[in-house]
Fold this sequence. Notes:
By secondary structure, the protein is an alpha+beta fold. The chain has eleven helices and 16 strands. The model has no long low-confidence stretch (mean pLDDT 92).
Amino acid sequence: MISQDLNDRITRIxxxxxxxxxxxxxxxxxxxxxxxxxGDQVAVNLLGERLVLTRxxxxxxxxxxxxxxxxxxxxxxxxxxxxxxxxxxxVYPVENRKGLYFAYMGPGTPPDFPNxxxxxxxxxxxxxxxxxxxxxxLQALEIGIDPAHAxxxxxFLEDEDTSEGYGKQFRDKAAxxxxxxxxxxxxxxxxxxxxxxxxxxLKITALRNLDNGLTHVRVTNQIxxxxxxxxxxxxxxxxxxxVPIDDKNxxxxxxxTSFQNPVNKALMREQRLKEHRLPDYAPLKNRxxxxxxxxxxxxxxxxxxxxxxxxxxxxxxxxxxxxIQDRTQEHLGRSDAAIIRYRRMLRAAITALESGEGDLxxxxxxxxxxxxxxxxxxxxxxSDDWQNASQQADMARRAACPWDAxx
Length: 407
């Protein structure tokens, strides 16, 4: 457990808040490219500021301060013609990366983008989407760096036909086996977890010891300050940012990156629009309708009884903690190793920024733009050589990739 003061320091994101100051030193997803396709500008609520994505006199995309009413909801989308811009407000630079508009809201020159797979893959191999969660950004991030939660929260009591699993997480077969991922997660629910600091954040390895001297190795990553990179299937990875709208609401922005084949963007968008509404990308299952909880389904099909979309399971879990999780009453355990290490990293970054001494992850590395990867995959390996075997599985996938995925 931590004090209320410390909880405030690591969750609040206003311009003068400690964590908010750290987040503003990094590029933040601000909108999907498809949101601007319908007009010349779109409202953006980001890091506690009411903004508009628009073009300046030089026809460059920027974020400018929007004249907003005090009672407007967090994910408010006025008609483009109704948006008024404050000529005295700040203007932030914007860059388009593979279907996502990123904004830099900090001081000085914006940092370079690292050379992650999601940024260097061709447009044909990347699909971007987002969704609204009614909770603080930190608890949204922390569920993504807990490798053990998938065995419980996303437990499927029946295994689907994996050939129908395109675009869906945990619907693939584990590499070099006929065992579905859902079966592995269900039958081996308590992984050993190894956490290592990297140049971009944390490498998190979950080890599930199977039979006959084999181990399932799942490598995921925390990309500082509020992103994760995880395997979606043998074909795809997910790079997902948990971006504060304000202290009590956030968007997850995801870039799905395919190594081998072009992404079927129409199908993936259709899948996700079955669970979200436009224009605010709010989930159709939510607190107001009990996330469509079905006790009959819970008895026979899923742990939550809330359908097959794991985003809904995560949403229920993080929103159920309240808008800002009360960490003064929590008791972290062995499976929370990555959460503990991440909070220490965030606190260290806050202290470094406040004192003017020390480095921030990625930002003070002169070779930051050369950071590649990261490795994110599932593999079944011999238990006595799991580290090398996991690395080799990733290298084999990259070697067969039609775009330059070398690391």
